[in-house]
Amino acid sequence: MKIAITGGGSAGHVVPALAVAARPSEQGVKELVFFGRPDSIEHEYARKAGIPFCPVPSAGLKRYGSWSNLLMPLTVLRGIAAAAKAMRRERPITLFSKGSYVSVPVGIAAWICGVPIVVHESDHSLGLANKIVARMATRVCLSVAAPADTPRWLARKPPSPACPCAMTWPSANQSDCDGDLESLLACRFC
């Protein structure tokens, strides 16, 4: 059983993702694979943690006028192709997405390949990358209860404040979950 992890750009995304990555071995997950930008902080941290790494081209949207925004869609398309190829090779049973712009091409590739996605947002509100990937996700884990003005597409997702198993399931046993694979994976992974 293999789980894919993505997120990067800063230690704020990578360190929590690696902390969560330590848990699956306690739950019977035998393999992990980290998707991120080559020669980046996530590459360095995954290497130090001994987690295999799949490089994915990605580029963030600059929120000011920049010529690099014109090339960004092409880089994202290259990233989706590279991530989809790696997803087919690695064959993970789920993707844990922590956010940042590297998670967009990886999340889209996972969705194309039919890999269930669990998005985790530590902040008070979803960041831009998590808003994009959350639309394709099977489960969205929020650090706070969803506000009253939650968009309809997000309100239809199974509610998961903080972590699915913290709210609904006291342990990671099949009998404690509602039986569907995505809920069991989310329960086991958080």
Number of helices: 8
Terminal-residue CA separation: 16 Å
Describe the global form.
globular
Poorly predicted regions are 164-190
Structure characterization notes:
- The structure is a single chain.
- The chain has 190 residues and is of the alpha/beta class.
- The chain has one domain: Glycogen Phosphorylase B (Rossmann fold).
- It contains 8 helices and 6 strands, in the order βαβαβαβαβαβααα.
- It has helices at 11-21, 41-49, 68-90, 103-112, 128-134, 152-155, 164-167, 181-189, and strands spanning 2-6, 31-36, 53-55, 94-97, 117-121, 139-142.
- It has a 6-stranded parallel β-sheet with strand order 3-2-1-4-5-6, with helices on both faces.
- α2 (41-49) links the parallel β2 (31-36) and β3 (53-55).
- The relative contact order is 0.15.
- Residues 164-190 have low confidence and may be disordered.
